[in-house]
Each structure stands twice: as C-alpha cells, then as structure tokens.
Amino acid sequence: MKFAYSSMKAKAGNKHAIAASLKSAYSSMKAKARNKHAITASFFFNARGDGLEKSISGMYRSLLLQLLEGYPDLQAVLDDFDLGPPQKDGCPPLNVLKDLFANAVCTIGQRSFTCFVDALDECDEQQVVEMVQYFEELAERSTAKGVQFRTCFSSRHYPYIVIHRGIQLTLEDQPGHAEDLATYVTSRLLIKEPRLVKELQPQLLGKAAGVFMWVVLVVDILNKEYRRGGMALRMRLAEIPSDLSDLFKDILGRDNENIEALLLSILWILYAKDPLRPQEFYHALWSGLSLKDLVNSQIPDVTVLGTGESDDTVSRYVISSSKGLAEITKSSQPRVQFIHESVQDFLIKDIGLSKLWPELAFDCESLGHERLKQCCSLYTNHPLIRTYVDRLLSEPDSNDRKEISNDYPFLEYASENILYHANAAAKAVPQEAFLTSFPVSNWIKTNNLFEKFNYRKYTMNASLFYILADKGCPELIRARLKEDSQIHVFGERHNYPFFAALANGHKDAVAALLNSSNGVDITEGLNHWKDLKEYGNRTPLSWAAQSGRAPIVQLLMQSRPSVGEMDRRERTPLLRASVHGHEAVVRLLIENGANVNASNKVERTPLSQASSKGHEAVVRLLIENGANVNVGNKHGWIPLKWAAFNGHEAVVRLLIENGANVNVSDKGRGTPLEWASLEGHEAVMRLFIEKGANVNVVDKFGRTPLLRASLKGHEAAVKLLIENGADVNLSDKDRRTPLEWASLKGHEAVVRLLMENGAQAERQTSKQTQTSIFTPSSLS
C-alpha cells in the first residue's frame, strides 16, 4: 500500500529556500487542480503571528475551512457532530477539530485533497510528533477508503521528524542545490580578478556546508572588504566562522560602533507587540537613543515621508542600526523585521543576546521590555507631543488619526503599548514607582485620540485599576495592589475593573485583581460575554454570588468589599445567592458576616427568595443561622406563603418544623393554604391541613381556599378540601359560591364534584349575571 505523504527538511539557513521550494510545489499542484474534483490547501506556521497563525489548532482550522469551502457538500459533517463547549477564543477544542478534519477527509469520495504545511519547526516538538502521527494514520484511513489524500510537510532538521511511510527529502542533498549556491556567488561577488574568484569560491562554498543564508552574509562581508581595497580578503574569509550562529555573533560583536542603536533595533524587532512600520521604528530608536543623549534632542521631522529621500533615510538607518541583519519588508504595509528567522534563533535560542550584552543575561525579555517601556514613556510625555495632543483635543475638527501618525508616527504605538511593555517588564523589574507616577489623565487623552469607537474611549475619571484590567496587565495590577487596594471603584463601560478583565477574557488579570496565583484559572467555564449578560446592575460580589462561583466569592471577600453591599437593583450578594440556590456561596457569605435577615427594596429576605424557589438546603442553612421564618414583606407574604404558592412541599415542611405559622394571613388576609389551593398543590395543602390549617378561612374578598381551587379547576384540591370539612356554599363578597365560579370558568368536573357534595345550584349574585359555558342546573 502506498501513501501520498512526504516531508522536506533543510538546515536553519536554508529556510527561505525550502519555503520557496514548498511554495513552488504548492503553486504547481494548485494550478493542476483547477477543477471541481481536486483541492489544494496550505498552511504556513508563522512564529511572529498571532495565536492561530502559529498554533496546531490554527492549522487544523485553516485546512478544514479550505476543504469545506472547496467541497461545500462536506459541510454536512458539522451537522452530525457534537462540537462541545467552545474554548475562550470561541474555537472548538483541538480533539474536536481533529475529528472533524478526519471525518471530512474520509468523506471526500473519488475526489482529491492535497495539503502543504510549512515550518513545523515553529511548533512545540511534542505537538509536531503527534501531528505527524495523526496525518500518517489519516493517510492510512483515507487510502483504505480510496480517497486521494496527499500531505507535504517542510521543516528544519530540528525537531527531528520520523516518517514511517512516504518520501523524505533533504534540501542540501538534492541535485542542483550546490550549483544554485555557486551561481549565487558568481552573480553577487564583486571581485573582478578571475584567479582570486577561482581561489576563494571553493573555500567559501566549502565552509557554507550548503547553508544559503551563510553564503548571503559572507558574500556581503567579502564585498565590503573588496570595496576597501581587498588586501585582507583571504584572511577575512579564513577567520569567518563556518557556523551560522557564530557568524551572527561575529557580525554583531565585531566593533562597538553604534552599539546602543544596535541593541535597540534588536530589542524592538524581538519584543515589539506588533512589527513596527519603518517610520515607527525610526522614531522608536530616536526615543531610546535620546534617553542616553546619543542623538539630537529634536524629534526627527518625518512630515515629508513618502518622498524618495526620506524613505531612503529610514531604510539606510534600519540597515545600519542593525548591522545589516534587519530589513524593511516589500509589501503594501512595510514592516521592519530580521532578514531571516535564523537571526532570531541566534539571539534567543542560542542566547546570543545574553552573550553580546551580559547586562541583560539575568532576564533578557523582561529587561528588554523595560527598555522599550522607557522609549514609549519618553515619547508620549515629550513636551512637544503633550502640547500637540492638547491642541488637537481643543480643536475637535483636527482629530485626524492619519495627520497624527504623519507628524508623530510612534505616538499611537507608544500610547497603546506602554502598559504592555511595563507589564512584561514587571516579571523582573519593579514597576511600583512607574505606576505611582504614571500620568493617567495624559494617557487617557492620547489613547482616546486613536480610539476609533466612542464606546471604547475612557472617561477622564477612569481609574488606573480599570485601565490595567481592561488592557490585561496582571503583573501591573499586582504591583499596584501593594500601594492601592481600591479595586472596586465604579465607572466606565464595564462598571468595575473585575468586569472589564472578564469581558475581555483577561483571566490572569482577573486572578491578579483577586490576588490569586497566576495560572490558576478561577474563571473556568466562563463564556465571557454570555455569562456577563446581566453584570451591568451587579457588583462583582453580587454577580459572583448569583453565578454560584464560590472560589471567586472567596477571593473577592479577601479584597474586603462590604458583604452586605447593595447592587444597582438593591439586592445583596446573599439574596442573589439564595434565590439561585448556591448553598456553598450562601455559607461563605454567612461565615463572612452577611445579615441573613437583610431585605431588598420590596422587603424580600434571602429566606423568602430561597423558599420561593424551593432551595431546601439553602433554606435550612439560613434558618440554622438565624433567619426569621415569620418575617414578611410589605404585603405580608412570609417565606411559608412563597413556598406554598410555588408548591415546594419539602420547604413548606421545613419552615413549619421551624415555627412558621400555618394560619398567618397577609394584608389581603390570604393564608398559605389559600395560595396553595389556588395553584392546586395537593401535597402542600394536605400538609397544611395536617398541621391545623383552617379550611374555611376567608380573605378580605370573602374567598375561601375551596373557592380559589374551584375557580382554577383543581379537582383533586377541591376534593381534598371537601373531605376535610370545607363549606361548599360559602360565597365571596360578590355572593358567588365555589360552584358558580367553577361553572363560570367551565370546569365541569369540579362543578359535578361540588354538586355531589351539597353545593346549591341556584343562587342570586349581586353583580350582573355573566354567561357561563353551562349552568349547574343543566348538569343536575
């Protein structure tokens, strides 16, 4: 059995070459597959991209989408599949994606599907091993079903991938690769003397060991030496290290010229939240160099950017500051990046950054972010920029984001990400002083200038805690808590910092606000917006209590909010937990001093609410902790009456056992038995009667329990009341009897039952006669 399965490998410096080879193969295959019976899909892992661009889940989602779009009939696999609960990003779990993809592939039939996946080395090694095994098994399954399923992977040599079935190609071993390198050297090397070229080229290619990037860098080094006169060409080639990582170290550490600009350029490319535009990069480096008085104090004028001269200035600076290891991408939206992924590998994986700058060795990433934070801080707080921002705010018509970006291209990034860099730096560099002096109002002004949507803008009263929670800065929240504990300040779009963090999915920020350990997911199971749909009228504590999230309640209690606080609906956390039956939360709140008899604006107590909903365990807990079973609301409804009305027999029994009065009447003189009769709760009625309830009690409208049951047509309830001595002929204030009400409402069985038990068929009422469905006399 044959499997259409292949893998391509190459050394680190040949990654561009293998990517080009894969792209060529993909384009060729796609061109051949231009019919309705063949689809070619691709996915390229991008270490600099967002989560989906560099994750295994992102790959499966992308390939599945391309397959379902190409063969729409396969979308039926989604109809017969349990997708399970989504993850925090709204995506199905990885195992569900894998099953969906396999089912779709195996349903292709006589059509074909080809996948190209590049840069496996950007993933975790164990994930790569599992993915390759998955694709091998899928290839086996699809082949057994006659499906034409082909897969081609590409990767550097590490991580090592074992292919059990299929073809494995190594770029350096392929015919023509050496010739391609020789052709490149011949075309790019500037040396004019044929004999010298003939002498140096074999040495150069021999040391390259097939690594294309090494050849590119060394040809450039030799060309520079040649332009200087070429007297040391042989010596320079001999001393150049053959290892690519060592070559990078040699290039970066060969001299100390502009060493600060070199470090800043590396840090910005490595640790910027998003790759910088050339103009942003230019101003970002000016800001960092200005901190050390290494450049002119004036902010560079880039108002003429877009002209050939200014663009050339920025381009030359990108190259010179990085010693040739950075470039500007040739795209519609140019960005500054390393010339090759292997540069980043040298700096991070081979700890080149620590070797070249030992002062960063303690924690390169945190210390790097600290430098970038300082660049952002100097830029955003520069007097000229502050004056500029204030002028724009005073002239509403001049608030043009494009104009601002042209004048001060680094301002938007610096304002948006100063807190991001400070948060990343906080893991190793204390940020308390930075936060204490952070100009919140100035930051809000600048941030609002660039915010497209008004509802996302902050008011000038926004607290620092709210901003940190909204932006997802857990380390800064923890640092600020050392100086300020006021995390429950009301205001802004999400009302409280806690809700801002939850709504944006910042789980670590939630944990920080609650002073919980990082990595402990106390929000597990939350679907963010869906589960926050009613948070607007809640405090964090009352929301957590209502949602039954005991761990969050416990942590919130440690931040010392008032356990009896009223939310905007004038409900306490205990009342909200009680009405929803969250026993563990109720216990927590009581242990922390919650008043079990506190009522809301309509005088409903926690016991009243729990009784109404039938939460027996909560009712018991409240009673054990002193809840008054006979306290009523302004209408006189006590917990027993709420439980009776809703038919909760166990709760009714529990309340009676703890002293509830079965004959108590409300302001309408209605008793619990009357309300149980109205709803036909026979078991509850029987319990009341056993406990001595008066079956002939009359409310202020003259209505008895029997009349209420008859009016609603509850035959079993009527029978029970008659059996226990209810007077069938007692009339209400309108002189209507149970029989007349049952007749009027058309309850034939009840009418018959009442008449069988002595109800008088003909009586005169004080109101105008109403037409009934049938008359008692007709039944008799």
Automatic annotation (TrEMBL):
Mapped ANK repeat ranges: 536-568, 569-601, 602-634, 635-667, 668-700, 701-733, 734-766
Domain Nephrocystin 3-like N-terminal: 17-156
Matches recorded under Gene3D superfamilies: Ankyrin repeat-containing domain (1.25.40.20)
PROSITE patterns xref list: ANK_REP_REGION (PS50297), ANK_REPEAT (PS50088)
Name recorded for this polypeptide: Nephrocystin 3-like N-terminal domain-containing protein
Keywords: ANK repeat, Repeat
InterPro entries referenced in this protein's UniProt entry, alphabetically: Ankyrin_rpt (IPR002110), Ankyrin_rpt-contain_sf (IPR036770), NPHP3-like_N (IPR056884)
Taxonomic lineage: Eukaryota, Fungi, Dikarya, Ascomycota, Pezizomycotina
Disordered: annotated span: 761-780
Biased composition range(s): Polar residues: 762-780
